[in-house]
Amino acid sequence: MNKFIILILFFVFPIAFADLRVGFYSSSCPRAEAIVRQIVQRRFNRDRSITGGLLRLHFHDCFVRGCDASILIDSTRGNQSEKAAGANGTVRGFEIIDEIKKALESACPSTVSCADIISLATRDSVAMAGGPQYDVATGRRDGVVSRASEVNLPGPGSTVSQALGAFTANGMSLNEMVTLLGAHTVGFAHCSFFRDRLNNNDPNMNPALRAQLGRVCRPNGKDPKTFLDQNTSMVFDNAFYKQILLNRGVLFIDQQLALDPLSKGFVTTFAGNDASFRTSFVDAIVKMGSIKVLVGTFGEIRKNCRVFNRA
Question: Any keyword Iron (predicted)?
Answer without folding.
Answer: yes
